[in-house]
C-alpha cells in the first residue's frame, strides 16, 4: 500500500486499529504517573523543603519519611516499576512474555516505568540519597536518562510493519513517493518547502562523526515543529493563526493539513536516511553501556531491600 493514501481510507484505518488500544493504555499510564507525582509534590512540598533536622517535628513526618505510611508504599511502588523495567529484557528469554504485544509496545511501558521509578524513589527517600540506597538512586537516574536517549535512537531507525529494518532501497522509494506527492501541490513554493526539507549531505554527516551527527539530528527534530507551524501560518489568516496557537496545532484547511502531513513525513524520512548508519552504530553502543548500569542498579536495589527487610523497616527514616 502506498504511504500517501488518505488516513481516512478503510484499509489504512484497519491497519491503525490494532494500535488504538495500545495508544490509549500508554496515555493512561503517562497520565497516572503525572497525577501521582503531581499529587505527591503538592501534598509534600512543605515537608520536603524543610531542613533535615526539622523534619521530625512536621506533622507529615510519620507519613512521608521512608518508613512512613506513604513513604514505604512509594518504595514498594518503585520496586514494582523496577520489576516492570526488567520485564522488557526478560521477554526475550520467557516465551509466553514474548507473545504478548510487540517490542515497541514493551518499549513504551519500559520507558514510562524507567522515567517514573527514579522520581517515586526520590520521594520514597525524602530526597536523601545516602549509603547503598543513594548509590542505587544515582545509578537508576543514569539508567533512566540513558533510556530516554535509547528510546529516541530506537525511534530513528525506520521499521517495516513486520518490524524488520527497511533497506535503503525501500527508504528511497518511500521518499520518492512523498516527493512526487509534494510536487503536485500549489500552496507553498519550492523555496518554502526546501527550508523545511533540507538535510545535511551524507558526506558531511560521515565527516563530523556519530556523536555530533546525532546532536545535529536531535536539533533538526526539535526545529521541525516550529518549521511546520511557520508553514501553517503562511497559509492561514490571523484568525487561523490564533486558533492554531501560532500554527502549532492543526488548522481547518484540510488541503494545508494534507501538505503539512506530507512535509513532516518526508522531512522525517529524509533525515533518518541520512543519519541511519550513525544511529544504528550508536544504538548498538548504547546497549553496551545501558545494560551494565541496569544490572548494577538491580544488584544495589536488591541489596537495599534485603537490608531494609533485615532491619524491619526500623532504620530507614531517622530524619
List the helices and strands and how they pair.
Layout: H1 10-48, H2 61-64, H3 69-90, H4 95-98, H5 103-124, H6 131-156, H7 168-183, H8 190-197, H9 202-208, H10 210-234, H11 238-243, H12 254-311
Helix pairs in contact: 1-5, 3-5, 5-6, 6-12, 7-12, 8-10, 10-12
Task: Give a description of the structure.
This protein has 319 residues and is mainly alpha-helical. Helices cover 74% and strands 0% of the residues. Helix 3 (69-90) packs antiparallel against helix 5 (103-124).
Order of helices and strands: HHHHHHHHHHHH
How does the overall form come out from the CA principal axes?
globular
Please estimate the helix content: over 70%
The residue ranges in which pLDDT falls below 50 over 5 or more consecutive positions are 1-15, 160-165, 314-319
The portion of residues forming beta strands comes to under 5%
Number of H/I helices:
12
The major β-sheet equals: none
Mean pLDDT: 75
Radius of gyration: 24 Å
Tell how many strands the DSSP assignment holds: 0
First and last CA, distance: 63 Å
Structural class: mainly alpha
Amino acid at each position: 500500500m502506498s504511504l500517501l493514501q488518505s488516513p481516512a481510507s478503510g484499509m489504512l484505518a484497519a491497519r491503525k486499529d490494532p494500535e488504538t488500544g495500545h495508544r490509549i493504555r500508554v496515555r493512561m499510564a503517562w497520565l497516572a504517573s503525572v497525577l501521582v507525582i503531581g499529587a505527591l509534590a503538592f501534598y509534600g512540598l512543605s515537608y520536603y523543603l524543610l531542613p533535615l533536622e526539622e523534619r521530625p517535628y512536621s506533622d507529615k513526618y510519620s507519613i512521608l519519611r521512608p518508613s512512613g505510611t506513604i513513604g514505604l508504599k512509594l518504595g514498594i511502588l518503585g520496586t514494582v516499576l523496577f520489576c516492570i523495567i526488567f520485564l522488557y529484557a526478560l521477554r526475550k528469554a520467557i516465551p509466553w512474555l514474548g507473545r504478548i504485544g510487540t517490542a515497541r509496545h514493551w518499549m513504551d511501558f519500559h520507558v514510562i516505568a524507567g522515567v517514573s521509578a527514579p522520581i517515586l524513589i526520590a520521594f520514597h527517600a525524602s530526597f536523601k540519597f545516602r549509603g547503598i540506597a543513594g548509590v542505587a538512586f544515582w545509578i537508576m537516574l543514569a539508567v533512566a536518562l540513558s533510556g530516554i536517549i535509547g528510546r529516541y535512537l530506537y525511534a530513528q531507525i525506520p521499521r517495516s510493519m513486520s518490524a524488520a529494518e527497511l533497506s535503503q532501497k525501500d527508504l528511497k522509494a518511500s521518499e520518492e513517493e512523498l516527493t512526487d506527492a509534494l510536487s503536485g501541490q500549489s500552496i507553498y513554493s519550492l523555496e518554502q518547502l526546501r527550508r523545511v526539507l533540507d538535510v545535511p549531505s551524507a558526506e558531511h554527516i560521515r565527516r563530523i562523526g556519530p556523536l555530533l551527527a546525532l546532536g545535529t539530528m536531535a536539533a533538526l527534530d526539535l526545529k521541525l515543529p516550529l518549521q511546520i507551524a511557520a508553514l501553517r501560518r503562511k497559509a492561514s489568516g490571523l484568525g487561523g493563526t490564533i486558533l492554531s496557537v501560532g500554527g502549532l496545532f492543526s488548522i481547518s484547511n484540510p488541503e494545508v493539513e494534507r501538505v503539512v502531513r506530507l512535509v513532516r513525513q518526508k522531512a522525517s524520512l529524509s533525515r533518518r536516511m541520512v543519519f541511519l548508519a550513525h544511529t544504528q552504530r550508536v544504538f548498538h553502543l548504547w546497549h553496551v553501556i545501558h545494560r551494565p548500569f541496569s544490572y548494577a542498579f538491580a544488584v544495589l536495589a536488591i541489596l537495599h531491600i534485603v537490608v531494609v527487610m533485615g532491619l524491619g523497616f526500623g532504620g530507614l527514616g531517622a530524619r
